[in-house]
Design brief:
With 94 residues, the chain is mostly helical. The protein has helices at residues 12-44, 49-66, 68-89. Helix 1 (12-44) runs antiparallel to helix 2 (49-66) and helix 1 (12-44) packs antiparallel against helix 3 (68-89).
Length: 94
């Protein structure tokens, strides 16, 4: 059985890239849904099922977007905790 290793600083760029892609996806998705909803409302002149669906999607992405700073903090904290645990667990005895 393999031992689980803690996070290292070499894992940080991968986590950062994943976070940036996630943030861009949320931002671009919210922009697209906002444009779609505006188009649907102006074309129909009233609220339709399609505009309600895009509004719900926009609300979901906006809510998820408010969690991005917390997710970033958890990612950074997990790397720091992993480094600390790894350094204490494999500390050479004196």
């Amino acid at each position: 059985m393999q031992k689980m290793k803690g996070y290292s600083l070499s894992d940080m760029p991968t986590l950062a890239i994943v976070f940036v892609v996630l943030s861009l996806t949320v931002g671009i998705g919210a922009g697209i849904l906002s444009g779609i909803q505006t188009t649907q409302l102006t074309a129909a002149g009233a609220t339709t099922v399609a505009s309600n669906v895009s509004a719900q999607g926009l609300t979901g992405l906006t809510t998820f977007g408010t969690w991005l700073p917390t997710i970033a903090l958890v990612l950074c904290a997990s790397v720091v905790i992993g480094i600390l645990l790894y350094s204490f667990a494999f500390k050479k005895g004196s």
